[in-house]
Amino acid sequence: MACSKEKECQILEDMKEYYGKTIQNKDELMINNSTSTCDAPPCKLPRHIAGALELIHPDVKAKSYGCGMTVPELLEGTHVLDLGSGAGHDCFALAKLVGETGHVTGVDMTEEQLEFARRYIDYHQETFGYSKPNTDFVMAYIEKLGDAGLKDDTFDVIISNCVVNLSPDKRAVLKEAHRVLKPGGEMYFSDMYADQVVPDHIKQHKVLWGEGFAGALWWEDLVRITREVGFSTPRLVKASKINIKKSIQDLTGNVKYVAATYRLFKVPQNGNNMPVDVVYNGSVTGHDKVIALDKHNTFKVGSVVEVDPELSAIIQQSRFASAFTVVPSKTSDGEKTIPMNPFSGTRAA
Ligand SMILES: C[S@@+](CC[C@H](N)C(=O)[O-])C[C@H]1O[C@@H](n2cnc3c(N)ncnc32)[C@H](O)[C@@H]1O
User: Fold this and answer.
1) H-helix or E-strand spanning residue 80
2) Which stretches of sequence are listed as region Disordered (predicted)?
3) Does residue 325 belong to any structural domain of this protein?
C-alpha cells in the first residue's frame, strides 16, 4: 500500500472504488471535462497529434477522464511514463507519437482500469502498423513507483492527466516522478488547481475527492513542492476555468478551480544566473515555423529571443537542446520573472 496514515489509505480505497466500479464512462463524471483534448476553442492541434488522436479506439475515448491535453513536443524514440493511465487514452496517443523505437508505460492502482487498457494494446499496435507493441500497463501507486520496480533515471518524459489531484500525498508523487526521470527529463501534466488551500469540509467529501475538487492543490503549493523535490520552476503551458455543476458549487463555495498544464524539468536549480539569447531552428515535428515552450515563451524560427536563466538551462540540458542555438545575451536588461499563476487571464472552458 502507498499510504501509512489511515485517512490516506481510505482515500486511495475510495478512489479505486470510484474509478474501478462507480464511473464507467466520461459522461458520468460530474465535472465538465470537455477540456480533455483542447483547452479552449478554437482548438488547433498540430496535424500529427490530431492524427494520433483519431486512431484511438472509440471505447478507450469514451473512458478518457482527463482534464487537459498531455502531449508535449519531441516525443520520437522517447520512453514515456503515464501516472494514473486509466483506460489508456493518453498512453495510446503517445504510443503513436513515440514511434516504434519509443515506449509508453502506464501505471495505475485500479485493476479494472489496467485490465481494460491492456485489452486494447494489440489493437493499437496493429492500427499504428508497428511490428510489436510499444505500450505496457503496470499496477502501481504513483506515490510508490519503486514498489513496482520503477528505477531511478529511467524515463525521458512523464505525463499525467487529472491524477495528481487525486493523491493524498502530492509530495511523494512529485518526488517519485523526479526520481524516475532521467536528468534533463520532463514531467508534462494536466491537473486541477484551487485558488486557495482547499478547506477541510471539502476534503471530507468522498465524491469531491473522486472528482478532484477535494484534493486539488493550491497552485502556490505546487510551486513550492516542485521546487522542494528538485524540479525546475513550473512552466505554465495553459489554463482554463473549470465549469462546475451547481450541485458541486453548493459544496465548494467560494473556492475557484482551474485545469492547468505545467511542465517541470529535472535540471539543476542553481546554474548560471545570466539570461541568454536562443534561436529556434524549426526541427521539432509539427512546429516548423514556431514553437511555444510555455504560455509566455514562444520562438519563431530564426528569431533571437532572450530567455531567463532557468529556461536556458532547460533548453540546453533537455531533449530540446538540438532544436535551439544558445548564445550569451547582448541585450539583457536584468532579471526576468517566471509567470506561474494559472488563474491570471484564464478563459472559461
Ligand atoms: C481521473 S482518472 C484519469 C485517467 C487518465 N489519466 C485519463 O486521462 O483518462 C484517474 C485515474 O488515476 C488513478 N489513480 C488515482 N490515484 C492514484 C494513485 N494514488 N496511484 C495510482 N493510480 C491512481 C485512478 O485509478 C484512475 O484510473
Assistant:
1) strand 79-83
2) 330-349
3) no
